[in-house]
Amino acid sequence: MTQLEFDGDGFLTNPDIWTEAVALEIAKADGIENLTEQHWAVINVIRKNYIEKGMAPMIRTICKETNLKLKDIYVLFPLGPARGACRVAGLPKPDGCV
Amino acid sequence: MKKLTKEQIDKALKILRMPEDSKLVTHLNACVHCGLCATSCVYFLTMKEDKYVPARKVELVASLYRRYCTLTGKIIPKLINARELDEKMAEEMIDLLYGACTICGRCVKHCSIGVDIAYVVKVGRQMLAAMDLVPPSLQSIVDAALNTGNNMGITTEEFTDTIQWMEEELIDEMQDENARIPLDEKNKNILYTLNPREPKFFPLSISAMAKIFYAAKESWTLSTSMYDVTNYGYYSGNNEHAAIIAKKLYDEVKKLNANTLVLGECGHGSRSTRWEGPNYLSTEYDFTTLTVVEIINDYIRSGRIKLDKTIINEKVTIHDPCNLVRNGGLLNEIRFAVKSAVADVVEMDPYGNDNFCCGGGGGQLAMSEYNERRLNIGAIKAEQIRKTKATIVVTPCHNCIDQLTQLNHHYKLNIKIKSIAEIVADALVVEN
Predict the structure, then answer these.
(1) Would you call A94 an interface residue with chain B, using a CB distance cutoff of 8 Å?
(2) In whole angstroms, how far apart are CA B259 and each of B171, B175, B300?
(3) ipTM of the complex
């Protein structure tokens, strides 16, 4: 695998080089051993939103499109939707207190 | 770094030469180099490099003052260690004043002379901001707030959709079709504000507060156009930006004609609105401004809400946000709220006015550039928490909550982190 470059916060410097294998690697670093179907559903919604709108989706959008409960998202990604899910999905760090 | 232009340097020096501000001159000339500030600072304590000593940060600004504002400094600068404002100096200032200070003010409490070190650091940031040298990650948050009305660029449609979703959850939980999260309603008692990370990623704290307002039968509303309690102009050092953001919130209170502005759980947002806002706008606020902690305590004291301390059976500790306790006076109020909701409360050592910063303050959480340092300095807070043996940490600041969430993961603390509204909502007994 090519050497991945991360910013100071551990987010991919170049979101374009994201692949599913990269996602798995980041997830492992966060203590998530396996990416389940539910993880992938969340990741796919985040990537789709990023590609279309250039930013992370609202947690509302993630829940609506995956049919997951809010609390499930926090269990799937213990670091939360931003530092957890968005990072695994290869996005740059969202702005704000996250 | 690009060569500084004369225009940039003049703008920065203008801030040093503020003739009306004798406070600055006093605090730049008062340090006696005793070194007490060193061991009060999370940066020095964890990384042990001299450059992190708070007095060194003051000295950066003071040396410029001596160079450009004193006669000796103008003639023989070397004699009094006066430094030029050049690229090297600017880089050092960016690294230490933005990248190595959370403006927590713990050093100020320990200073033998009473130098307001955090204030001097902020003046240094103002100088850098005047030269357009705010770290890009911090500036982008300020820009988002200026351009979209909130620091995460959430659209009104997205916000409304999220709040309606939380309202449906509230109706379900309260089993009451009339349970509401009102939007843009005029003439209510309270205009409530949020940290944008709540609607964007963590809306459970919104529903927790809605539940408390419901139980207290409060007359309240959220605004869809200006609900953001944060003001990162406060940390960037650009007071003009800070004033524009403060004015937006002020205007919203007026537009909706609310009696009381209730500040969501955000340390710097509370400070920049409640204490700095009137200064930014040169206006005395003619409405009441309260934090979530105070309004909840008002409900508890007056019997408008009832809490059951037997519901939460875990050991709970409190993290004191610097801007709300050391610099905000809420020490006892926070304890009253938490102890009304929880039976087993244990304090950190030290706590209250001497508490250590979580490491995420001063804009650190927003600045990816200094992430490694931020996690390093958080080691002190992580150790404090571990020693309490608490399984829940409560803190009334979403910025602290996010830093603590990262510390929890990084230092494997195995704790839950909650806001005041969340812990109180957990203990709430709702009588329909």
Answers:
(1) yes
(2) 26, 29, 20
(3) 0.92
